[in-house]
Amino acid sequence: MNTTTQPKAKRTVWREEHDKVLKDRFHTDYIHEIASYLSCTVSTVSRHARLLGLKKKNRSGRNHNARVLVEMEYPNLSYEEMAARTGLCKSTIYLIARELGLSRTREQMSAIRSRRRKELIQSERRRAVFGLVPRTHLKVGCDIRKIRLRGNLKRHGYLADDDGTTFYYYAGLRRHPVREEHGIKLGFKFMPLPTACTEETESDSASPAASANGQTIK
To answer: Quick check: 166 and 154 in contact, CB under 8 A?
Structure first.
């Protein structure tokens, strides 16, 4: 049994200058910010605010920028994402949305959930590649060998198709037979870049780099 006594936190004696600070900052700052500045607890600040008769004039009106963001991005972002962008908690974002009378359609809610799930899966796959502990209980079911080889091929100039298993090589690319052989064993396919894409790339001589499927050919 641990009998070690924990040192008591130093108690702040409330003074008249604390009342002045509280009056000056109450309507512009958060309670926890005032408490941190005065080196006391949030409950202490709240209690003295009640004794002084202080009340928030407009709780969510203070967060003008947050209200603007919520009104613009409510159909596209989750509460968690809006909270992260504004620095507020999710419950505050929910209250702001309710005050503004905002609502989502089923399609919008489904799109947000689908996007968030894809982002979580991608994040968990990246953590698996680098051997990090997963943050969620999602079963990503990824083949680490494929993910690593896919990224390696892209870094060496191969162009990946949308299916993620077909890779194109263009004229002038330094090919890597060993990596290609390894990729074929894992189910990858390697093909020359289609003629139309090659001609389009060559015709774009004005720019120092041309791109195909979002990858840059230098």
So the answer is: no
- Specify whether the CB–CB gap between 169 and 175 falls below 8 A: yes
Taking the CA atoms of residue 63, residue 67, residue 73 and residue 74 in that order, the dihedral angle to the nearest 10 degrees is 110
Bridge partner list, 160? 167
Nearest to 22, CA basis, from 1, 49, 51, 62: 49
Q: How far apart are CA 138 and CA 178, in angstroms?
A: 34
Question: To 5 degrees, how large is the angle CA 169–CA 175–CA 177?
Answer: 115
Task: Give the model confidence (pLDDT) of 81-117 as tens digits.
Answer: 998 888 777 888 898 898 888 999 999 999 999 999 8
Query: How many residues are there in the chain?
Result: 218
- The Cα–Cα gap between 114 and 119 comes to 9
What residues pair up with 168 in beta bridges, in sequence order? Answer: 159, 191
Residues 6+ apart with CB under 8 A from 143: 186
